[in-house]
Design goal:
alpha/beta, TIM Barrel, 10 helices, 9 strands, globular
């Protein structure tokens, strides 16, 4: 018992030290980078505000959400705090400026996060369609994967094609070098990641899992995650020379051996350091590799941070 208590005290000290490390870095280095003072007038249409004929897909810094469809997961006040990573619906995330959605499904087409289940994937699809009907040139990356430990939903690829077919941008490596205007009226890059079923084929309406990569670091230590994100990002080729999307997740994850297991207070340890991360990318010479930046509980400032860097790239300032 004493050993366990000692271990917990050491863990709490590590977390406190790492939070202070990031805060100190923010104070000493600041969060300035090209485009940091840009704020879109209309986040619902922030891509349109940058002009669709100027934005190349591989120059966009895409604001994304982690475990996007968990706003109503589990039982309120009981299991929900342990799995809820977003408080907004998919539609309201998109209105706020999110452009990369991360959805996990199980065999019956219900959205899940581990063992906890929420609404059916139809809710996600309908929210996406509603947003697209209200906008004209916003592009979305919709990633759907079968959750770990589950079987693929039967005929799910066919279902996605039937539901989203008119909006789907077909899998083609040339898409990365095109402008949004060249892709319209198509609006969705849908990445389907089954666990056992065949991957979507080149030229088809859905994209295979290899087109959206990341290096997930499972930790609740904010500086450890921050530094690991920088290292893995620096190992990537520049965004303009690769034919896949690379995601950095500005999140930390509750750990079973720590008494704080609710997502919100844990992820808050790193949430406010997204702008610092971008600034450090410039300081370390890897800002040209940054492409998707994802977070829990997305807010306006996070969206603005990504839109601002996108603006700077379009204007030739970054």
């Amino acid at each position: 018992m004493g050993a366990q208590a000692s271990k917990q005290m050491d863990r709490r000290k590590s977390i406190s030290t790492e939070k202070k490390t990031l805060s100190g870095l923010k104070q000493s280095c600041g969060c300035d980078y090209p485009g940091c003072d840009y704020h879109p007038a209309d986040r619902k249409n922030w891509m349109s505000g940058l002009k669709s004929d100027k934005i190349h897909v591989n120059k966009i810094v895409w604001p994304g959400t982690h475990d996007s469809a968990t706003n109503k997961i589990g039982i309120p006040f009981i299991s929900r705090p342990f799995a809820r990573c977003q408080s907004l619906s998919i539609y309201h995330q998109l209105v706020r400026g999110t452009r990369v959605i991360d959805v996990r499904v199980q065999e019956d087409r219900k959205v899940c996060h581990g063992i906890l289940v929420t609404y059916g994937v139809d809710v996600v699809i309908n929210d996406v369609k509603k947003f697209l009907s209200e906008t004209q040139s916003e592009i979305i990356i919709l990633e759907i994967r079968t959750e770990f430990g589950h079987e693929d939903p039967p005929e799910f690829e066919k279902y996605l094609e039937e539901q989203l077919g008119e909006f789907l941008i077909h899998q083609d490596d040339h898409v990365f070098g095109k402008t949004i205007a060249e892709l319209l009226p198509k609006r969705i890059i849908c990445v389907w990641k089954p666990r056992k079923s065949p991957q979507p084929k080149a030229g088809g309406p859905l994209w295979s899992g290899g087109h959206l990569k990341d290096n997930w670091i499972d930790t609740d230590l904010p500086s450890t995650k921050f530094d690991s994100n920088l290292k893995h990002l620096s190992d990537q080729p520049p965004a303009t020379s690769r034919n896949f999307f690379y995601r950095v997740e500005n999140t930390v994850t509750p750990q079973a051996d720590n008494p704080i297991l609710c997502v919100k207070p844990v992820t808050a340890r790193i949430h406010g350091f997204a702008r610092l991360f971008i600034a450090k990318c410039f300081a370390q010479g890897c800002a040209d590799r940054l492409q998707i930046l994802s977070t829990d509980f997305i807010d306006e400032d996070f969206v603005d941070a990504c839109a601002g860097l996108t603006y700077a790239r379009i204007e030739g300032k970054a």
